[in-house]
Amino acid sequence: MTKILGIIQARMSSTRLPNKVMLPILEKPIIWHIYNRIRNCDLDYVCIATSTNPNDDEIEKFALNENIPIFRGQEELVLDRLLGAAEKFSSDAIVRITADCPFVDPHIVNRLIDMYRKDPTLDYVSNTIHRTFPDGLDVEVISNRFMKFLSANLDEFYKEWFIMYVHEKHENFRCINYENQTNLSHLRWTIDYPEDYKFVKKIYEELARKSGIFDMQDILNLIKHKPYLTKINQKYPADTSSIIYKNEKNKKTSFELYKNDQN
Fold it and tell me: Disulfide engineering: 71 pairs with which of 85, 174, 195, 239, CB 3.0-4.6 Å?
């Protein structure tokens, strides 16, 4: 039986919205809501993976208080941190959920898990290679085997940005992309900025008390009737991570060209 570990990837040192994973929503920190949303998914275990940076001690304290398993590893080398967690909990594959996705949808998570379980020879199953879901509903199933391969072959830059590397090279691997029937990739439901936090709080205040674990369709129905909610954070584009990655990659390329020119 394939063992799948759910990992909430979290750290405190966000530059755009510091300590965002511990910001309160309905008297609970954001990371609690993420855990609460995925703990009943078709997963064998769920853990939090954070870094060994002392700034992340608060995340470990939270996890211990809530009896949530935790792994601490490299801060910047995200790939190695996730692989370390996978090995600690003896999984065959992981489901990666980042702590900036407070609306993670259990229905979508279970759909991707089912796709992977039907073919465990896959390297990577995701709904983000070609985005059709709102930004913030990102789910990735990654085999341990594939993570070990990437860890052995990528430099430090790509170990931090390994998901972007997989997206760029997905045709070279056994990858599947799960697409929504309607392209909703323009919707920004992630949390990176104060305006995002305000938007997320409004959605939870409207829906969580009524239906508990609300899903994508519940949010779509709400913003259809209250479209002003989407204006709260509309000044920021969806998928800002890709924008940041491209800028960082250009810096890396420029530096390498300069270095080679000096030799």
Answer: 85
